[in-house]
Amino acid sequence: MQIRELTEFDLVTLAQIEAEAQSSPWSQAAFLRCWESKFPGWVLEIEQKIVGFIFISIAASECHILNICIHPSQQRQGLGQKLLMTTLLRAKERGADTVYLEVRRSNHGAIHLYRQMNFKLIGERRNYYTTPKGPEDALVFARDLAMLDETDLSQ
What we know:
The chain is α+β, with helices and mostly antiparallel strands. The protein is built from four helices and seven strands, in the order βααβββαβαββ. It starts with a strand and ends in an 11-residue tail after the last strand.
């Protein structure tokens, strides 16, 4: 397993993974906008094949996770946790002291992961997501990075 910075050449693969994993995936244009906006991002590879990714934005001391996704065939193996922990450490290195994210209310697996990784529920956004079944609320989580260090990678 390897986590590396993503490149523009990875964007097509990211869109494919997203399309397989999400009911309302980002478009390829959305990935390109993130890349062109110079938002940091990383991919998780197994045997040189991309199986997951993350995009973040950092402004002042705040980091916002824009998108995190693991291919459905690789979920529930701890890969999302490894990718997220590595990203939290890199965000802290870049000056972030708090990380925020939104998650679909129905995404119980992701909610469990975020709680396990010490994210706290701080609010909700009504009708935030568009889905084939209609709008869905987002839960907003935050994590303080003050006590985070390299030893957390072993979790």
